[in-house]
Amino acid sequence: MQSNKEIVLEFISATNQKDWDKVLTLVHNDFVRHSSSEPKEIKSNIGLVKFHQAELETFPDLKETVIFAIEEGELVAARINFSGTQLGQLINFPPTGKKLIADFNCFFRVTEGKIKETWVEYDNLNGLIQLGHYKIS
Questions:
Q1: In which band, very low, low, confident or very high, does the pLDDT at 137 lie, cut at 50, 70 and 90?
Q2: How far apart are CA 14 and CA 101, in angstroms?
Q3: Is pTM, for the whole model, over 0.70?
Q4: In what order do the strands lie in the sheet with 63-72?
Q5: Domain 4-130: which topology?
């Protein structure tokens, strides 16, 4: 039987490989993703796959790399590195062709061998600055 941490690592690997069928086997049907960023909430494993597919339209070379992950009971906390080149629309921001490299925090709740819930937080301002959408004077 896999540990919750192994399930999370397998999920991130499947997402990087765009193996959506595998992602669906690792996430509960009634999955919920919480974030202070848009979208603030995703409800369902299909919604999560659609979110990641749309993210790939913006960052076709997107890759997430786990820096570390810590498991405690049904919770897994992970620090993850995101890298991708903005070649598509990002909300209201046009493509810049610039690369975004940033770390973010994600907390996963795993129940019955599947990811049930996540809480994801990014430094959005840093991302907009890297992509050239926002300048600090």
A1: confident
A2: 20
A3: yes
A4: 41-43, 27-35, 114-121, 99-111, 75-85, 63-72
A5: Nuclear Transport Factor 2; Chain: A, (3.10.450)
